[in-house]
Structures are given as C-alpha cells and as structure tokens.
Amino acid sequence: MHAVVHAAEVFFDHLAAVEWKPLGIGVGLYLLRVSARPVAWRNIIAAAYPESRVPLSRIFGAYWVGVAVNSVVPARGGDALKLVLVKHKVTESTYPTLAATLIVETLFDFFLSGIFFLWALTLGVLPGVHANIPGLDWNWFFNHPKAAAVIAGLTTFMLGAIVILLQPRLRNFKARVRQGFAILQPFERYLREVVPWQALSWVFRFASVFYFLRAFGVPGTAHNVLLTLVVQSLATLLPFTPGGFGSEQGLLVAVFHGKVSAGALLSFSVGQKIVTMVAGLVVGGAALFAMVRTLSLRGLRHEAKAIDEPPGL
User: Fold this and answer.
1) Is the pLDDT of residue 122 over 50?
2) Of residues 22, 27, 19, the one with CA closest to residue 279
3) pTM for this predicted structure
4) 218 three-state secondary structure
5) Cβ pair 125, 258 in contact under 8 A
C-alpha cells in the first residue's frame, strides 16, 4: 500500500509535465482497443450456441461493464458480472459454458504475451522470482516458501474434496465447459472469427502505450512499448489488486532501472491507470445503464434474479 501511495504522489508531482495531446490520443486508442474485443467474444459465444441469438450490443455492453468493474475490484470480479449480463440475453446459456468462452477469449493473449515474455527473457531485464520489488503481488509467496506450500496444500485438498463431492454432477458440467470451446473445432473458424479482432486489439494496445509513454515523458520506442506490455501482462497474473496496481509500478521500475527515471515511470504507470480507469468507468457505466436502466446494487441483484438457472447448476 505504501508503494501505491508513493506512486500516486509522484504522479501528481509530475502532472504539470504531462503532454495532453498524446494523452488524448492514447485514451482514444485505449477505447478502440477494448471495443474490438467484444466482437471476438460474441463470435465465441455464437459458436457455443449456434441455435441462439447472440446480440453484439449486449456482448459489447457486458464486456465494457466487466472492464470497468475490473479496474476497481480485485480478482477480476467484473468477469462474473459479464456472465450475468450475457446469460440474461442468450437463450439456454449456462454459466459453465459462458465461463469457458472467457478462457477461449484469452488464448491469443497468452500466446502473444508468451512470445513477448520470451523476448524479454533473452534481454535479461526481468527480475528473478526472489527479487524484493515493492508492491509485487507474488513477493510474499517466494519469500515465505513454507507458508506458501501449506496454503497450496490446503487449497489442493479443498479442491479435491469438492471434486469428489460433486462427482455425480461433473459429467454434465464437463459437457457444458466443453461447449464453450466449440469455436476451436474447426480451428480455422477460430483463426477467422476471433484472431483478427484480437490482433487488431493488440495493435491498438501497442499504439496506446506508445502515446501514453510520450505523454508522460518516457521515450516511446518500440523496445520500451514491448517491455511495458510484458510488465503489464506479468502484473495481472495474480490479480490481488485491481488491474495489477502496485505490481505494475514495481516491475516497471525494476525492468527500466538505470534507463528511465523512476519518477517518470511511476508517473506514466499511475497516470495511465487513472485515465483508463476513468474512461472505462464512464463507458462501462453508460453501458450498464443502457442495459438495466440502473446503476444501483439493488437493480443489479434484480437482474441476476431474473435469470432462470437450469436445474443441476
């Protein structure tokens, strides 16, 4: 928490030096980046439910709501709200299948992030797992191996017990999860209907980071953009904080150590988080209001209760 507060203080200290034109372009590219992804998710859901109507407008709105919630809630809590909003409009859909479509929706991201990660490893700029980096989510696990092993063992035991208790109902569950991967068969359909939209999103992501770097006085080279993308991907591996906040700032300072000042890096990282969070909350809030005509928790509970859950879930 101290690292986060310090990063925010550095950002506000550097606020006067922000270049507003690149910042505005970066925000616009961020909006395009997120807006390209719901099309891919819609195609994945449509493949899972070929007999059902899957309205793009609903998927688009639900996706933006999820992005907005994930920016302020840890552990990707916005993904659960995505599923609630989509299930209400896709006939006969189930949560296991819809959750599986979210996994499919990230496959291209893992592939591309993996390539960037391997590239960063060849440069030798990434800190080791035992590096003491302020704000890094997984520091505690590597610095307390015995306690981490106990937690891992208890978690494994509990998951095993749940599997045994639910064994009679798992067959139906597995079939529904498998349904969410329908677009992968044939794989050519995935390449045609999902990859182009996600690749476009990555192009916008690269460009937005380029302009955000420039806005906060960090050289916007291709090398710096790619390293930033690697750091952002690593920071969200364990989403203990909204959007990996804290981890991202610590990793950026470690990766760019000696090349870019820590103040400029913290100003960039926190500034980008703030402006994208505000943009996401505005668009996500507007989308949520358009779908359920309310922004209150009571209205959202009503939306969830309106969904008729099939027996056996």
Assistant:
1) yes
2) 27
3) 0.83
4) coil
5) no
- In angstroms, the CA 118 to CA 107 distance is 17
For residue 95, give both structure tokens.
């949560």
* 3-state DSSP assignment of residue 115: helix
Residue among 203, 223, 201, 218 nearest 269 (CA): 218
Cα angle 278, 281, 284 (rounded to 5 degrees) comes to: 145
Are 136 and 247 within 8 A, CB to CB? yes
| Residue 130 pLDDT | 47
Distance, in Å, from the CA atom of 99 to the CA atom of 194, rounded to the nearest integer, reads 17
Q: How far is CA 84 from the centre of its chain?
A: 18
> Rg of the Cα trace of the chain?
21
* Cis status, amide bond into 96, omega within 30 of 0: no
Query: Is 246 within 8 Å of 6 (Cβ atoms)?
Result: no
Q: What Cα–Cα distance (Å) separates residue 161 from each residue in 156, 157, 158, 188, 288?
A: 9, 6, 5, 39, 38
**178-219, pLDDT tens digit by residue?**
999 999 999 999 999 999 999 999 999 999 999 999 999 999
CA distances from residue 1 to 62, 136, 212, 245, 277 in whole angstroms, order as listed: 31, 11, 24, 10, 19
Distance CA 223, CA 201 (A): 19
CB contact at 8 A, 31 and 39: no
Dist CA 148 CA 282 (whole Å):
39
pLDDT of residue 64 exceeding 90, the answer is yes
